[in-house]
Amino acid sequence: MKFIRERVLKGEFLAGAWCNMGSSITTEMAGALGYDWVMLDQEHGPGDNTTLLHQMQSLSGAKAAVFVRVPWRDRILFKRALDLGASGLMIPYVQTAAEAKEIVTLAKYVPQGERGIAASPRCASFSLNFDNYFAGANAGLVTFAQIETPLAVDNAEAIAAVDGIDVLFVGPKDLAISSSYLDWFENDKYVTLLKRIAAAAKNNGKVCGIHMPQAKWVPLVK
User: What is the per-residue pLDDT across 168-218, written as a single tens digit (0 to 9) for each?
Assistant: First the structure.
């Protein structure tokens, strides 16, 4: 397992690749490039649990930490991704502190949560490394809450304050459409929403992230 949560929360620059094709070949290619992390997208990608396994296996020799964006906050989806070896989970459409707390509960082992415990899964080297994995999993897991609606922006401080939420990650198109700012980063009101999210993360010692659809917009959110 490659845990990089400590580096994330220190604010290190960590480069990564987003893979949403359900293909082990593309993830293997991404791993060969030396990224710090690779995100396997199962919300908008076609992958299932079997393709996820193959993608993770293709990254076994890479230095990258493996993150998974699950389709929804669901106990079974969390458990399967984590048992296969994910070292971080991204959860879409988080709008309240209560939802954020639910995420942490489902993602963490006792005493912080309710994640199911088994020694046999791949994450614990098929029982060969369970004790070490169990001891470090809660502290090592990176948990991303996606901020995608005006309600989520209004609750960003409360979401970021939840112990176990590490990253507020903006879904830029969802936020733009749900806020009726269809001109995206060209609209000062939209950029103001982004700055509110970033401030909420910083105020709570957390990290903020975003997809950048065009390089020309990067200076607007620095």
Answer: 999 999 999 999 999 999 999 999 999 999 999 999 999 999 988 888 888
User: What does the alpha-carbon distance between residue 53 and residue 123 come to, in Å, rounded to a whole number?
Assistant: 11
Region 84-102 average pLDDT: 98
Look up 211 and say whether it is catalytic.
Answer: no
> Which residue has 């980063």 as its token pair?
185
For the entire predicted model, the pTM comes to: 0.96
Enter the tokens of residue 11. 């604010």
Residue 76: CB atoms within 10 Å? 11
Phi-psi region of 180 (alpha: psi -120 to 50; beta: other; left: phi over 0): left
Q: Which of 9, 30, 44, 185 is catalytic?
A: 44
- Cα–Cα nearest to 81, from 40, 119, 111: 40
Residues forming a β-bridge with 66: 38
One-character DSSP codes across the chain: ----HHHHHTT----EEEE-S--HHHHHHHHHTT-SEEEEE-SSS---HHHHHHHHHHTTTSS-EEEEE-SSS-HHHHHHHHHHT-SEEEES---SHHHHHHHHHHHS-TTT------SSSGGGTTTTSHHHHHHHHHHH-EEEEEE-SHHHHHTHHHHHTSTT--EEEE-HHHHHHHTT-TTGGGSHHHHHHHHHHHHHHHHTT-EEEE--SSGGGGGGG-
pLDDT digits (tens, 9 = 90+) for 58-80: 999 999 999 999 999 999 999 99
Q: Residue 177: what pLDDT?
A: 97
